[in-house]
Amino acid sequence: MITQVQIVEWLQVFASVIEHHKEDLTELDAAIGDGDHGINMDRGFKKVSSQLGSFTGKDISSIFKAVSMTLISSIGGASGPLYGTWFLRASSATDGKQELTTEDTLKVLQAGLDGLLERGKAQLGDKTMIDVMSPAVGAFEQAVSEGLETVEALQRAVIAAEQGLKATIPMLAKKGRASYLGERSLGHQDPGGTSAYWMLRSLLEVVEGSRG
């Protein structure tokens, strides 16, 4: 079970992780993109972080919707619409809920992924955040089918996400600014996939921490 309090904690942890790794994301994006992914993500999640106090007592759906609106309005480039879409779809999947069962969490992850696929028009193998999120959702779904609890399912998802992230390094980019580089995009880890991995890992850390 993931509580509303843990969702707020997750957003705070993820914002801190982004701030800590801002330069890493910028360096990754400078190699194959506009070089602003770290700056944009940090700006967006600092804004989210500043709003966390206003989320007290709100249901998870309302929190996700507020995060979505904030990210869309404050993150430039492709990341704002993509992360905004992820949280907006997550909001639709959590209507009125104050806590999420393992099955609810799967619905959140699947809804977010579906939103990314529709918004970004990318597929597996295109060297995008889909290469991280898709295997993560698949691993979580498999864990649920085996009757595992949320924390174990998230552990599986994060392992799959990390494997998917590493797999972007030798890929040829087929979407976004990186696709303009052709073979020069080879050998670089996808920056959007990197931030997506940290998002999932941050959630796992919060859930693991609450379990002790």
TrEMBL record:
PROSITE patterns (UniProt xref): DHAL
Keywords (A to Z) from UniProt: Kinase, Transferase
Transmembrane segments: none
One MF term in the entry's GO annotations: kinase activity
This protein's record includes keyword Kinase: yes
Ranges for domain DhaL: 5-205
Domain of life: Bacteria
Stored SMART domains: Dak2
InterPro entries: DhaK_L_YcgS, DhaL_dom, DhaL_dom_sf, Dihydroxyacetone_Kinase
This protein's record includes keyword Ribosomal protein: no
Name of this chain's protein: Dihydroxyacetone kinase subunit L
Gene of this entry: dhaL
